[in-house]
Specification:
Blueprint (H helix, E strand, L loop, with lengths): L2 E3 L12 H5 L5 E3 L50 E6 L3 E3 L6 E2 L2 E7 L4 E2 L4 E2 L5 E10 L7 E7 L2 E9 L5 E10 L6 E7 L5 E3 L7 E9 L1
Antiparallel strand pairs: 1-2, 3-6, 3-15, 4-14, 5-13, 7-8, 9-12, 9-15, 10-11, 10-13
């Protein structure tokens, strides 16, 4: 039970009124530790000015309450990131049609958002992502281009290669809704004959990471 003490002579069962407290000299209220609960404190009465810096520690904040949206600008979070590459050589048809790269070997996948069966990156956290891709053929071609497809449609074209380079790269910052949006790495060439995409971690790869929350 709370106890009110002051320079006023209290009697048992007496009602505490503002007038009686005002007449008392330096009244104080003594409250037992277990008598103050969060249910008895109005939300509006808890302000940052009333909380000492040393009383807010990481141990008192649950992980689930720290979200990407609550991080200040310029603070890096722990959003999804992945990197994967072509594990086996892959034929790329001619005619300029965009073929899907069967990126089936992961270097890392922090949130299990890259699928090595359908070769899609579908991040489960909404936000803006840096997406990168590279393709390389084993022999030269007159035209080779890497491309990022989002939700099945062409989104970003890479640089055009030539018969001397055999390589094309692509990069862009793309928004994802955190549920249904996905991207794939595709490539096209028009040499007139089938070309072989060279497997390997440094030749045909696909990667991405979150750079800003939604």
């Amino acid at each position: 039970m709370a106890t009110v003490t002051a320079g006023y002579n209290w009697t048992s069962g007496e009602t505490v009124t503002p007038a009686k407290l005002n007449s008392a000299a330096a009244p104080t209220v003594v409250v037992a530790n277990n008598e103050i609960t969060t249910a008895k404190i109005a939300d509006g009465n808890v302000t940052t000015a009333k909380i000492a810096d040393g009383n807010v520690t990481t141990a008192k904040i649950t992980d689930a309450n720290v979200t990407q949206a609550k991080l200040a600008a310029g603070v890096a979070g722990n959003g999804p990131a992945f990197r994967a590459y072509l594990g086996t050589n892959l034929n790329l048809g001619t005619g300029g049609a965009y073929g899907l790269l069967q990126i089936d070997t992961e270097t890392f996948d922090t949130n299990s958002n890259f699928n090595t069966t359908n070769y899609r990156f579908t991040p489960s956290v909404s936000g803006y992502y840096q997406i990168n891709g590279a393709v390389r053929t084993t022999t030269g071609t007159e035209f080779l281009v890497a491309a990022i497809f989002k939700n099945g449609s062409l989104h970003s074209l890479g640089d055009q290669s030539n018969a001397l380079r055999f390589v094309s790269t692509v990069a862009d910052v793309i928004y994802f809704n955190g549920s249904t949006d996905y991207v794939e790495l595709r490539a096209a060439q028009s040499s007139g004959v089938v070309k072989v995409l060279q497997a390997g971690s440094s030749t045909c790869y696909f990667s991405g990471c979150m750079v800003r929350a939604a």
